Amino acid sequence: MKHGNALRAARNAQAIKWAKTHTLRDLEDLVDEMAGLGEDVSDIAQLLDDLCEIDRSLQTGADTVPELEASEHAITAG
Fold it and tell me: Quick one: residue 38, left, alpha or beta (phi over 0 = left, psi -120 to 50 = alpha)?
């Protein structure tokens, strides 16, 4: 069991390192490539969908921040 846990931890560390240095587009390309090779990518595709949804929600939130900052600058300048 210890060997299996160590292997799983190593794979998780590799996945985290990969995610820190790649974009969602890179993951989408990887999913497409793996699917083209006949691999079952349903788990990864679901992860990609979830990450894209998170990204969209963060982008929506980020769009409102500059407007807030602009109004704050207007108040300070006025």
Answer: left
pLDDT tens by residue, 15-55: 899 889 999 999 999 999 999 999 999 999 998 999 899 98
Neighbours of 6 (CB within 10 A): 10
Tokens of 37: 């090779």
User: Residue 1 has what pLDDT?
Assistant: 59
> Is 60 exceeded by the pLDDT of residue 67?
no
d(CA 6, CA 19): 20
What is d(CA 59, CA 32) in angstroms, rounded to the nearest whole number? 24
- 75: tokens are 């108040």
Six-digit token string for 10: 């190593």
